[in-house]
Amino acid sequence: MHEIFIQNDDQRAIIETVQRFVAEEVTPRAAELDANVNPEDSFSWEIVERAHEVGIRQMTLAEQYGGLGTDSLTTSMVIEELGKGDLGVSVIFAQTLKIAQIMQAALNKEQQSRVLPAFSEDPRGMLGIGITEPDNASNYFIPHPTPFRTSAEKVEGGWIVNGMKHFISNGNRSSFYLLFVQTTKGVGLAEGSTCFLLERDREGFSIGGVHDKMGERLANNAELIFQDCFIPDENVVGEVGNGFNVLAKFFPQSNAYAGASVLGVAEACYTKAVDWAKIRVQGGKPIIEHDGIRAQLAEMRMLIDASRSYIHRACYLADHQEQGWDKTLGVLPKTMASQAAWKIATWCLEIHGGHGYMKEFGVAKLVRDAACFLHSDGVNRTLFLKAANFIFEE
Q: What residues have CB less than 8 Å from 289, skipping those under 6 apart?
């Protein structure tokens, strides 16, 4: 895989471990889990526990916390491989791996000592991040001078939080969260929000509905409900009123990780299209021997390779910003990969003809999954606007 980017034997061993994990634990059960009517039944703790056993779940943690300390480039390769097996599985681990990285950078020593060992040792330890609200999604990405509806009032020793987040990946499965709420009235979320460390068992915090999604079903997204939830001062991450900068400062490669997840779907579509084109005979020969199909497959391959290179560039430079990081790398790799994945998924459907429309061929699931990241992790049109603001800022 991607030989130009695999620089050492440790990286190769990690990727090979993930490939075996996908082949043995994810691919055989993905379609069955996806078909469950109740979205909570589509999530598999068995997959999570097995990922813990082989070291995937906690690999971005430093060795002192039981991880491998994988860099962002290697992590993106892992996320991509997981996406080949199933988008939802890739997303639940991409979220956990990236939030573990944020926590190591943004939490103070005392907070790290409370959270990271407990997360590392728990075979079911998952992580979530509470940002999106019914009224604030694209507002966050621009950002627009609108406050979060979820707010915190200062009291002695801490804060009282009220409000709701929704569409939260791993929302109903996480042990710990990073929560972004409004702490200053009369200003937008960029100036008046604070990041808090949130434990699952915190009184006043509960899980609302689990969203019933068209795709990415092996990952759960849920509502987070806060009703007079007390969060102590020692759970403030960074500075009060400066929460919006936590993600920008400590984790610029989040967008590229999302791109890696959906790129895995694109690769699964490409592989399925090639395999079908080799065996489907029309006009007296396999359709892969027809020029139109061959050219379309070549374009699919081009889009995959170009998207991967963009993702890898962003992830490498996120860890080595002095070598040429620019802010558009924090928003554009996902848009490129998701648009490529959607195009490749629909072409895969077309290449399969009527067979692709039949559920038993597995194309329908890939199309549903590919649609996810046209919106998730930022609506693409919004991200283009954010990139334009970076490009043309004074």
A: none
Element (H, E) at 205: strand 205-210
Q: Which structural domains are found in the chain, ordered by start? A: 9-124 (1.10.540.10), 128-243 (2.40.110.10), 252-392 (1.20.140.10)
Residue with tokens 């987070």: 224
Cβ contact 233:60 at 8 Å: no
Residue at token pair 């900068």: 245
Euclidean distance between CA atoms 85 and 334, whole angstroms: 19
In sequence order, what are the residues at sequence separation of 6 or more whose Cβ sits closer than 8 angstroms to the Cβ of residue 247?
Answer: 102, 254
Say whether 352 sits in a helix, a strand or coil.
coil
DSSP 88-148: HHHHHHHHHHHHHHHHHHHS-HHHHHHHHHHHHH-TT--EEEE--BTTBSHHHHTT-S---
- pTM equals 0.96
How far is Cα of residue 31 from the mean position of the Cα atoms in its chain?
Answer: 20
Residue type, position 29, single letter: R
CB half-sphere exposure, 255, CA atoms < 13 A = 29
Measuring CA to CA, which residue among 143, 103, 166, 149 is closest to residue 331? Answer: 143
pLDDT digits (tens, 9 = 90+) for 327-385: 999 999 999 999 999 999 999 999 999 999 999 999 999 999 999 999 999 999 999 99
C-alpha pair distances (Å), 192 with each of 188, 234, 317, 377:
6, 19, 30, 22
> What contacts 96, CB < 8 A, 6 or more positions away?
57, 125, 126, 127, 170
Structure tokens given for 157: 């020793």
Q: 143 preceded by cis ω (within 30°)?
A: yes
pLDDT digits (tens, 9 = 90+) for 48-86: 999 999 999 999 999 999 999 999 999 999 999 999 999
40 residue type, one letter? E
CA 171 to chain centre: 13
* DSSP per residue, 235-295: GEESSTT-THHHHHHH-TTHHHHHHHHHHHHHHHHHHHHHHHHHH-EETTEEGGGSHHHHH
- Reported as half-sphere exposure (CB side, CA atoms, 13 A), residue 248 has a value of 12
Say if CB 125 and CB 99 are below 8 A apart.
Answer: no
